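yo

u said u wanted the structure for the complex thing, so here. seqs first:
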Amino acid sequence: MSADRFEDFVRRAAQAYHRPPDAPREQMWARIVAARAERRLARAARPSPRQLWIRWGLAAAAVLALGIGIGRGIGPGSPRPSGMEMAEAPAGASEQVPAAFQVAARDHLRHVETFLTVFQYEARAGLAADQTAGLARNLLMNTRLLMDSPAGQDAHMAALLDDIEVMLAQIASYAGSPTPADLRLIDEGIEQRGLLLKLRAASPAEYRALSAQGVL
Amino acid sequence: MDEREVIARVRAGDAVAERQLYDAHVDRIYRLAYRLAGDDDLAQDFTQETFIRAFERIEGFRGEAAFGTWLYAIATSVTLNGLRKVKRFRKREADLDDAAAIGALSTDADPDLKEKLASAVGELPLKYRTVFVMHDVEGYTHEEIGAALGVPAGTSKAQLSRARARLREALAGFAGEWVS
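structre next:
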């Protein structure tokens, strides 16, 4: 058997191997343009490391101040423990900072819940508010800060923050003029994830009542 | 218009030039992706990703090689990485092909040499299959293949030789077809 003949034969026969159809040029080009625009938006929405540090620092300071404020507000009713009492307290009893993060997280979840409720209403009414994407970006940034904070170490909270991040990223990506189909898709996404229910479940009723009264 | 000029305009953010560059190369990129993937959706995904990366990285194109060569390097990288990601799926598919081929050979009920060839090509290791498809099917030179895969042209030749040897072995039962 001749090697040349085999090569010729294989070349001819292999032309039928995964024979491609005509390239769907327009279809692919439209997707390329859309994907690039989406990636640009995602990059723009992502804060720079410097911004992240500054904002994280400010957020941490605010949360700590809030925690201290809460501690002082509760303080007068309970005398400050002595050194001996503190030493004898069980491990994990001193949880002022994590508690402060929890408060900050609940506060954030309440904002997200309000935003998504309004967004759903507007989406269903066919309204597309100009500031929606901007608000979503701000909330997205705070969500990511929380994800990286001690509050995000709780598995339940982390899962919820993950869900929130996905939905906010989608809303933030439609910065221009989202079509009714885009809005419907996001609305369906919120429903499918049961996000509003989860958010409501994550905020205890007494906390919501206190928040509504301006106590927190 | 000279391609270098088009590239300069793309770097300056000219969307029309981007489309020109796309039109000039998309068919060959898609063909290669399709030949390697054997699936239209995957081929489209790989082609799209190739151009997205090319436009993102065009500042890094120094013009030492032809633009096409640079683009094929991105395309092969995207396609091969993509195919590795769907390797489990492909392996399952190949296993099914194996089973079908074994059954067919044992009963001598599959006289279609082209089908057997397609199956044998599909069973080649990815690096051999890539070189075989690029050279024997799509007509790339060993220099182009070497540049795209980041290997010397000699390596491309050696891999093609091994790919053909495996195919010859797989098609031994059909020797009469090409000898005659």
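Chain B has two domains: 3-85, 87-173. The two ends of chain B are 49 Å apart (CA to CA).
cya
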